[in-house]
Specification:
- Chains A, B: InterPro entries: Homeodomain-like_sf, HTH-type_TetR-like_transc_reg, HTH_TetR.
- Chains A, B: This is TetR/AcrR family transcriptional regulator.
- Chains A, B: Pfam families: TetR_N.
- Two copies of one chain form a homodimer.
- Chain A is mainly alpha-helical.
- The first copy, chain A, has two domains: 48 residues, Homeodomain-like (Arc Repressor Mutant, subunit A); 134 residues, Tetracycline Repressor, domain 2, CATH 1.10.357.
- The termini of chain A are far apart.
- At the A-B interface, helix 8, helix 10, helix 11 and helix 12 of A face helix 8, helix 10, helix 11 and helix 12 of B.
- Chain A binds a DNA duplex through helix 2, helix 3 and helix 4.
DNA sequence: TCATAAGACGGACTGTAGTCCGCTAAAGTC
DNA sequence: GACTTTAGCGGACTACAGTCCGTCTTATGA
């Protein structure tokens, strides 16, 4: 119980570096990929709503507990699956060419974002619905919502400093809710009509003096 | 099997009058009221999220099947409970004094509606969340949404005939989603701030040339 | 290579939404 | 008041989300 274990003190040996958590264990990584792959396949084959998490766990060859520990809940799994596609859009916004990326006028950037988001949403409505509705208020808790919100708030602040940018950003995101989009499409609204309506409203809202 | 049963033919005796379904049976009415009363009480006592439909059925002294046959699902029950309060607002819109009722300028009426709706929403967020989120797309299927939508569409058409009134009405209703409102309140937005932000945006959107 | 502990695994378990169908009671008919 | 029709009743049943905890695997370092 003295220092004779050598120059490496207990502190040096045992304290993990803060902010750098252990890397993912090999089995954890293997199972994570298996689950994502199985979910992707089953969702595509049978429709998001018709696949239970038991079924995904079984198809992935893992226990159900594993799925839940890793993804939290149904919404979490959907978020993970959407992540890849959303990251593409995020990258374009942060460092792509204008008008989506930096360089264009703020209102143009907002409109470019809405167009791009609507394309993404339209392509993956079901998955978005799952990620937004599977648990209460899920939409507003997930990272990407906050990222879109922050992006819009900055642009709005720039375009219309007289507005409450924080609130207005939520306002602009509200019509992008997955279940509203689904409902509109089911009612016969086509994508161009939705895009055009939203573009018009946004222009009016953000361009006025 | 001849006409000897008298002047009353089989047709006359048996055909129900179309479009006038049998009145509600006494036991059905009794149970409907019991369930609503029990639900109202339990929701108030324990919070909407913490009450199962089994519990409501038990408290009402009816079987679970009865609750589901009558209300369809959790959302349906919440809708039924909200109905009374929403009808009050509906009445004011249809025949109350301006600016909520007829007579005021369309933009003023829209703003009055938004204010009144936000008050209602803020007072019953939990119930609204249940009615909107308990089943997929429930918000857009229920009667009152369609009523609000129709009301707004007419006013928007009047104020800005150049806009796509049908779509724009959905746009105006989007920020009234219960889970967004809850999330905003949880983030510290107070009701006046929300009202003012929405009022400003609406004015800008509908008043521009 | 072995000992050890952090952490992942997975399936049994719980609680709830929603379905089903044989049974019961209310309304209408004579 | 008995008989028939029809709607409503209700609880057993299914399926699914999400939890829990004893067991097993991996990474580490000596």
């Amino acid at each position: 119980m003295n220092d004779s274990t050598g120059p490496r003190s207990a502190l040096q040996r045992k304290l993990p570096v803060v902010g750098q958590p252990r890397p993912e264990r090999a089995d954890a990584r293997r199972n994570r990929l298996r689950v994502l792959e199985a979910a992707d396949r089953l969702f595509a084959e049978q429709g998001v709503k018709n696949v239970s998490l038991d079924a995904i766990a079984a198809a992935a060859g893992v226990g159900k507990g594993t799925v839940f520990r890793r993804f939290g809940d149904r919404a979490g799994l959907a978020v993970a699956l959407l992540d890849e596609r959303e990251q593409e859009l995020q990258a374009k916004i942060l460092s792509g060419p204008p008008p989506l990326g930096p360089g264009a006028a703020p209102v143009l950037r907002v409109k470019a974002f809405l167009d791009a988001y609507l394309d993404l949403l339209d392509r993956h409505v079901e998955l978005f619905m799952d990620s937004e509705n599977a648990s209460d208020g899920a939409r507003y808790r997930i990272g990407s919502y906050n990222l879109w919100h922050q992006h819009l708030a900055l642009l709005i602040e720039e375009a219309r400093p007289d507005l409450d940018a924080d609130y207005t950003a939520h306002l602009v995101l509200a019509p992008l809710a997955a279940d509203l989009h689904k409902s509109l499409r089911d009612q016969g609204f086509d994508l161009p009509r939705i895009k055009s309506g939203l573009r018009t409203a946004t222009t009016t809202l953000l361009s006025a003096v």
